[in-house]
DNA sequence: TATGAATGAGATTTCATTCAT
DNA sequence: CATGAATGAAATCTCATTCAT
């Protein structure tokens, strides 16, 4: 999947012309925002942790909120990115790709993503409810597009007879709940518990598969 | 279930000797905290919405954080309450109570609860990550106790052969994800979408039942 | 002229419910704004001179600009006030009131006013060019109304044959220039020179009278 | 009047070795200072409008105040310039030059000057009250010298019997008020009103002439 | 009990100025 | 000469909390 790298690179191409200091600011902001929340974090705290003068923050980000957005926007973009890889459907929906393999791929992919970008994701989740513009952007640019893509996939598996004939929104909700429930529990709520990741992934997959299995009717 | 009323009353018994003003303060705080978050809310804003003087808040709550706790504590208590109703197990686990009926009862109950206490729950969810004491309390007093109770229930249904032999933590996680996923989608994320509540509840129940069904192995 | 007092009182009636501190803030602000200009004055400077905490300023005036407006608005009002005294025209334009007496009355009145409210007037003059809203208000509420009143007066004196038949705007401009030129020179530009006020007033009056005299044509 | 050109050239001789950027800076500074005042203008604003980097301003002007002075000093010089043209008195006070013609010449000259250098003049007027050094310089180098020159002229016209025997300061004040009152009204206060310039100039001249006429006593 | 003026610590933001490139 | 990132001091403004009434 070389395309994936391209897209991620594109999302970050601005990071290229960032100063060292600016990168430090961004890093510090991500860390502290995710720990204390946006409103609970002061710019002086960020400046101190980043090792820059407070004024430097405002040379790069007009306001504190700008700084928040410059963290959240790429996080949203990266969240969508994998869905827009060229040949995405072609590969995933090939006859040889079972729903089970698809789920496994998705869960593992999202787990890695979550592990890597934990703080940014925490910020995204925590702050979206408090910022109307973000909420709007999120629904419009992320939710809707993600939904469209997933609908196609659900349709395909339903046609292939691997998934019960539920309306796509309901099917997606149930699948997403199960996956996110796992990821959130694993990384956000109880990261320090000792998880057998592989086993839990399998359990989650089997739960979804059986929950949506066509065979359930036959039994 | 007259006991339920008793417990709720107990949780609120202090509300009895609350002055009108104090009640107004609490109401206003709940509303604004849930909209803007604790750190994003100023006490003067609360005072204005409550129609009291700024100083009055501090007559009743030593600090702003006190006010937050006075909202979150009862919310946590109420969250646990139904599990501690006398005869809880007796009733729920009677031979005549199938897993399906149990799930239906729980979902409907939690839905009503969520609808009624939406703002308080939002505050609970949003603020817990930022306040170590709360996190500690929540895990100790709520999570653990809830888990204990649920474990008993899971054990029972597994013994009755209505649920696959998953370790209880995993089973509980999967059930909870599905239910909370529904409730959060329904009330927090897309409250204004038009939901067919009854139908979605049934879909969620069937999803969980099949996902955890013993029969799955036979198929 | 008891009405005059009433109007002034009205303009200040809010000063009644001002705290001591608020009055101090206003006084300090007037003084420093007039010395250093609005932009050149810091709120901390004002607070220090007023003997209050800086926060106190913002309890009474939402912004620094608010504080400026709370100085300028009444200054504009007071500037207009004398023109709106009941019976103003009746008295001034009575047959027994010559243009000369009218001019003398106006100059002396405005001199006293200028002497008394020097700093506020300086602020008004200095800041109006920099604040579009003020400029708008000033033209709409002050200039236009003042002009209307003065036009009536000019018309009357022209009808009485005491003033040449110039278009009122031009006549008013010439009279105003002469009077303001005197007042500005006297109080703003060279307050420390030794002026023989009475003599200069007379010279100014005679200058205007002859400048606008009907008899000039006869000579 | 070739001398006039010489003097102006002298005043600007530094502009010759100005870089393009420096000229842009000066232009931008004049424009913004006159709109928002010195204190209300930031150097970064000037840099942006001038299309240069922030640092560039400080290559050419050690401080922001330096930049202000580099605008105000030549403006003051130019204000005085016409008075120091060689043969100034000779020409103006020739027997063939009546007071009326003199006034007409002065008014028209100052009008053209005002029209051309409006922003610089605004800055001069606005900033002088706030900068003690400027005030000192202005009185010493400009006011006094201008006064001396004008006194000579007034004396001459009084001797010629074209002007009433007022003390020169008073005469100059009255003349200056009338002229400046017109110019300020015309260009600073109501530039967008439709003025019949020629007519208003004549009215102003006649007003002054009659106001200071010797014949007034005869009437 | 309730008020709301007052506080001062601290938050966000601005800005003139410096300096390495 | 020119740049623009960086600075840090200071400016504006916010806010939880106190206290006299």
TrEMBL record, chains A, B, C, D:
GO terms for molecular function: DNA binding. One of its GO terms (biological process) is regulation of DNA-templated transcription. InterPro entries: Homeodomain-like_sf, HTH-type_TetR-like_transc_reg, HTH_TetR, Tet_transcr_reg_TetR-rel_C_sf. Residues 19-79 form the HTH tetR-type domain. It comes from the Bacteria. Pfam families: TetR_N. PROSITE patterns: HTH_TETR_2. Keywords: DNA-binding. The keyword DNA-binding applies. The keyword DNA-binding applies. Residues 42-61 bind DNA. This is TetR family transcriptional regulator.
């Amino acid at each position: 999947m070389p395309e994936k790298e391209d897209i991620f690179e594109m999302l970050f191409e601005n990071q290229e012309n960032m100063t060292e200091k600016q990168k430090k600011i961004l890093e510090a902001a991500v860390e502290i925002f995710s720990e204390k929340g946006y409103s609970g974090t002061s710019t002086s705290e960020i400046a101190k942790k980043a090792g820059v003068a407070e004024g430097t923050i405002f040379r790069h980000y007009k306001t504190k909120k700008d700084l928040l957005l410059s963290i959240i926007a790429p996080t949203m973009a990266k969240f969508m990115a994998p869905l827009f890889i060229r040949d995405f459907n072609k590969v995933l929906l090939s006859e040889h790709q079972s729903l089970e393999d698809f789920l496994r791929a998705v869960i593992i992919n999202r787990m890695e993503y979550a592990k890597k970008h934990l703080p940014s994701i925490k910020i995204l989740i925590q702050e979206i409810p408090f910022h109307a513009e973000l909420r709007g952007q999120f629904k419009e640019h992320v939710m809707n597009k993600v939904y469209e893509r997933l609908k196609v996939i659900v349709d395909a598996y339903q046609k292939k007879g691997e998934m019960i004939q539920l309306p796509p929104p309901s099917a997606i909700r149930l699948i997403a709940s199960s996956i996110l429930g796992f990821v959130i529990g694993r990384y956000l709520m109880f990261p320090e518990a000792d998880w057998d990741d592989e086993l839990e992934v399998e359990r989650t997959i089997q739960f979804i598969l059986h929950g949506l299995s066509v065979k359930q009717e036959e039994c």
